[in-house]
Write a structure and sequence with these properties.
Elements lengths: L5 E3 L5 E3 L3 E8 L8 E7 L6 E8 L2 E6 L5 H4 L2 E6 L3 E2 L1 E5 L5 E6 L7 E9 L10 E6 L4 E6 L15 E5 L6
Antiparallel strand pairs: 1-2, 3-4, 5-6, 6-10, 7-8, 7-11, 9-10, 11-12, 13-14
Length: 171
Amino acid sequence: SNPAIATVNEKGVVTGVAAGDGVTITIKAKGTNGVATVAITVVAEGYGIASAEPIKANQLKVNFTTPISKADQAKLGFEVKLTSPLSVTASFDAEGKSAILTNTAGTMKDGTYTITLTGANLILDDKTKSVNVAVAPLKASKVVVKGDQVSSPSNKIKVDYEVVDQYGDKL
């Protein structure tokens, strides 16, 4: 009775289209006089975290099990915790498939963090609403020599270089 929520094909298979309730389906079998009415509620798949990884010294990338709609992005929260919760900001990609969480206090300490989805009036998948992610200690991963010339004022050699961490950022 509401094809925006559920549809029934010619074989009687009911397919959920969107979350909602108030759908009734009337069933009449061939060759009978009886009729049955069934109330159906379509429950949306819960949001969850498929994976997470550190991408910068102060950022984690979270990939979701189901794309998160723009409307639900505003309702969704994140708790990121090592021993106590961090203050993070979230930036979602255009499709809602992932988000970048930025620690507002700066560089994250090494350790295993727990990321948990939170949100009022949202369906969260209990099995995947939390995930652990290991953050390695910040380390120099390479030295980049800048330019192809060295200067030699006063018989001292000067080489311009920069040191970058495992994420490709300057230390």
